[in-house]
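User: Thanks for the earlier help. One more: Quaternary ammonium compound efflux SMR transporter SugE. Can you show the sequence and predicted structure together?

Assistant: Of course, both are below.
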Amino acid sequence: MAWILLIVAGLFEVVWAFSMKQSDGFTRLWPTVVTFAAMAVSFALLSFSMRSLPLGTAYTIWTGIGALGAFVVGIAVLGEAATPLRILAAMLILSGLVLMKLSGSGSA
């Protein structure tokens, strides 16, 4: 269950990152509201997952999901560049997440 909560927390991190971009520096009301609501949900789910997962594992996975998700949303929705170096960097982040999961620490 902790892993499911952690994955959902990471997805909410993507939501708040995207809505923060849409808030235009917190000058637009609804994207700002979505940002703070998604942050609250993301942090709460992260904290629940940390009840049984180690800090390093949980935080690494959470930030990795957020980073990769924001990268994909940036390309797919915002039209950001998908250069070979950016794709390589995303692949390295993904490989780090896989290695963290496979390391066996905190396999709750």
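User: Great, one quick takeaway?

Assistant: Residues 86 and 92 are 10 Å apart (CA to CA).
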